[in-house]
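My hope is that you will study the record closing this message with an eye to the fold:
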Amino acid sequence: MNARDPLLPVQPDEAEALAQFASRVWDEEIVPKVTDYIAIPAKSPMFDTDWAANGHIEKVIRDAAAWVESKKVAGLKLEVVRIEGRTPVIFFEVPATKAGGNEPDADTICLYGHLDKQPEFNGWRNDLGPWTPKYENGLLYGRGGADDGYAVYASLTAIMALDKAGIARPRCVGIIESCEESGSFDLPAYIDALKPRLGNVSLVVCLDSGAGNYDQLWLTTNLRGMVSGVLKVEILTEGVHSGDSSGLVPSSFRILRQVLDRLEDSKTGELLPQSFHCEIPSDRVAQTQATAAILGDLVWKRFPWACGADGGSTLPTTTDPTQALLNRTWKPTLSVTGADGFPELRNAGNVLRPYTAFKLSLRLPPLIDGNEAAMKLKALLEDNAPYNAKVTFSPDGRAGAYGATGWNAPSLSPWLEAALNTASQAHYGAPCGYIGQGGTIPLMSMLQANFPAAQMMVCGVLGPKSNAHGPNEFLHVPYGKKLTAAVAQVMAACP
């Protein structure tokens, strides 16, 4: 028998046991449960205003809660927490197996995921669909499997793996919400209500992020914030003959273009207001350069360019890997994600339309306050409307929380940096990578504010081509197995 290395919380043979346990649970339970989950159109409340009556969110919450309770983890307590008028949250807690880990001031690991989904979108492969799961060559296709239906199952599996192997761990709590894809506007009320029960959170494990490749563990270092909402320009009360009116009645679309020109340089995509920009910390630039060296052209070639699988030099805003990573993680950007006021092409007669409405998605750098940005954006777009048109911008969310604030991770503690690399080497055979993400996880800024001393392990299965929110979304099962074992190994190293 090999001598035990006192510097390693998890020995090599124990790491192999964690991997084997995680792989078995994924094959026997997680893949079937996530397959069932994909088939349920549990769209986030922003995309299903009748979510309570439709019952899809209730269904996935109850299914996940029932599975967690069925595992009979020693001492586990679970509650579906409900606040009137808000989407429900699963909260569970598991006592520590580590000596002294259940004292009132002992450290707690908080695990996070969500069960609500983005809407269907179009363009799915002929044999695929958002609510028709298909498991093929290790990839589980369908809406929400990777973002983020697997998280609750993987989180509990990591705990079970440690307990099965007899490896001590701190107390754990889980927060599984159902409003994340709407900006988590329901979550602050739950964080306030649950704070006395969370304990002394020293490590947050969030399984709702991405990976630069499928060859190593990836830690998310920063996330952008977001303001979304509807910009609407109204010029008439009803449509009129375009030949009779054009040249006299200004086009609502042209006015909307003028208004957007206040926000964005249409030639370059640069956001014009300096208040939406921030200085990039030097350590993040250095990390980005190291990540660019690992990923190279994969940074931009991973997207489904219309000109072909590998894109072309004129298509991306840049083909420099470092700049490409910074553009998608630290620069503010505008996307138009939907439009209203337009008839279908086959029904488009010679009519000057009464209004044009765009759904805007403004991604913000990690250090910009989301709610303040929402108010500034509203003022910018609505003030001094051309032709005195009726221009309104209605941000998504609730009063006081209209935008989601981004997040920049605290400096890594030596123990966490060592644990991440050890776990990545053990389960992937490569060191841990560090990458910023362009998406938004509102919980992270909330927990950072409430637990400023906590360390953050933000990671996930959304690697190249996984296409969360779009068509053909898939969950990379082999990566998910390794990630689950790696998370367990890091949890064991938590002081």
Notes: The chain has a mean pLDDT of 95.
